[in-house]
From TrEMBL:
Protein name: Glutathione S-transferase N-terminal domain-containing protein
Domain of life per record: Bacteria
CDD domains for this protein: GST_C_6 (cd03205)
Domain GST N-terminal: 2-85
A Pfam family assignment: GST_C_2
């Protein structure tokens, strides 16, 4: 039986979310993974041919169709296993977890934009105001998650926690000078435990 193919880059926090779910639900062997190299300045024709937006992850299905956006791919794989769903199917918990996952994705989005601005754009063309606005997004989101951690953020793997864990991992990878742990100690305590899940350890991006 032909397997779907996941187009990925190891450092992407959005790809990592999918890999965490695949490992957690025992589906990793049912998927082919294909690494692609791309930046905003050097797009991948392989990715563009499957996702017109040119973004990863993209999941190429055996029937020739493609799923893209990590949340869509996570939802797809969460329906392919018989264990406890990582995305609640209904009720208030579903909307709460999806909202937290969206906020975690906003952290990753802002961190990626900061990375692009500081790594790809010449220094004389960088906008301090724009960079500050992205960092403020991260700070506000981290403050919200600090409150969530104080009220008992789950240590179980679900759509909210895996999204947050991967976003915080990306901050450590690309923006270590933020020193977010100093300002958000309860969130730091939560992450120190959550990051030890086997699927988180196995998907740590290369330095």
């Amino acid at each position: 039986m032909t397997k779907p193919t996941l187009l990925f880059a190891p450092a992407s926090p959005f790809v990592r979310k999918v890999l965490v779910l695949l490992r957690h639900t025992g589906q990793l062997d049912s998927v082919n993974v294909e690494e692609v190299q791309l930046t905003p300045n050097t797009p991948s024709q392989r990715v563009n041919s499957r996702n017109p937006a040119g973004k990863i992850p993209a999941l190429c299905l055996p029937d020739g169709s493609t799923l893209h956006d990590s949340r869509v791919i996570l939802d797809y794989f969460d329906h392919q296993h018989s264990g406890q769903p990582l995305i609640p199917r209904s009720g208030p918990q579903r909307w709460q977890q999806l909202t937290l996952a969206s906020l975690a994705d906003a952290i990753a989005d802002a961190a990626i934009l900061i990375r692009y601005e500081t790594f790809l754009r010449p220094e004389e063309l960088r906008s301090p105001e724009w960079l500050n606005s992205q960092q403020n997004k991260i700070e506000r989101a981290l403050q919200q998650f600090e409150q969530e951690a104080a009220s008992g953020l789950s240590q179980s793997v679900n759509i909210a926690t895996l999204s947050l864990g991967c976003a915080l991992g990306y901050l450590d990878l690309r923006l270590p000078t933020l020193n977010w742990r100093e300002r958000f100690p309860q969130l730091a305590d939560w992450y120190s435990q959550f990051s030890q899940h086997p699927e988180m350890l196995a998907t740590q991006p290369p330095i």
